[in-house]
Amino acid sequence: MDDSLNIVQFVRVGGIPWALVVLAVSFFVAHLITRFAERLGDRFSERRLLLQQVSTIARFVTSMLGITGAALLMFRLSEQMLLALGGTLAVAVGIAMKDLAASILAGLMILFDRPFQVGDRVSFGGFYGEISRIGLRSVRLITLDDNVVTIPNNKFLTDIVSSGNAGALDMLVQMDFFMGADQDIAVARKVVRDALTASRYAYVQKPWAVLVSQVVHQGYFAVRLRAKVYVLDVKYEKALESDVTERVLDGFRQHGIAPPAVLHRGVDAGAPPLLGPTLAA
Fold first, then answer.
1. pTM for this predicted structure
2. What span, in angstroms and rounded, lies between the C-alpha atoms of 188 and 246?
3. Fewest Cβ atoms nearer than 10 Å: which of 23, 37, 55, 212?
4. Of 196, 259, 194, the residue nearest 223 (C-alpha)
5. CATH numbers and ranges of domains, the chain
């Protein structure tokens, strides 16, 4: 009881409304920073990732300043108060806040160590998508089907995370196309090459390739054409896959490239090939 009274006497009742105002203003400013960075990123797409990364740091600093300012307004910071708080609340707060404290420290490590950045396409814990925000407590990842996945920052200290573009706008994308083992490989390879170079989403200034190998696909002996090309911007990843796939399907039909089968003479030559686009690791 005495300890409770000692703690209450250090609280500035008149400072509580101002502390709430400071918190509200700081989080509002952080929200404005995010919206402003998003608008600038849409206008200057080549600087989009840099703007997102700067806004992340600015939002982090703004939130921390707001929390610190609110604490200064609410409490009379003195040696007696620190002793009282340390003696009464240290254990309780330590147990209740250990995960939050670990996440905040992990967030700082993410910002400085930079295993990934805002705008990166990453794979983590079975999820794949774009990092949209690195906050005080968690990281938000938007999957390609537009689901928002919230991951505590401290999870990234122990688990493996894979970044596809590592801070760059472009990213290597891998797509697999399968055809019968008795089909014309040179023609099929040219079709895939033409599809890559013709796509407006492909960044052909970086190295790209079409690799040929013989595999067993769905129980059939098949030839796999693996296309590797950089997408111009990670936000066009699925658009690139769709565009290239359509071009390859059309080219295979025009040249009579048939899919894998036990006996191709019994397969309609105009049938579409079996496709399986996958993202490069």
1. 0.60
2. 14
3. 212
4. 259
5. 2-109 (1.10.287), 121-163 (2.30.30.60), 171-266 (3.30.70.100)
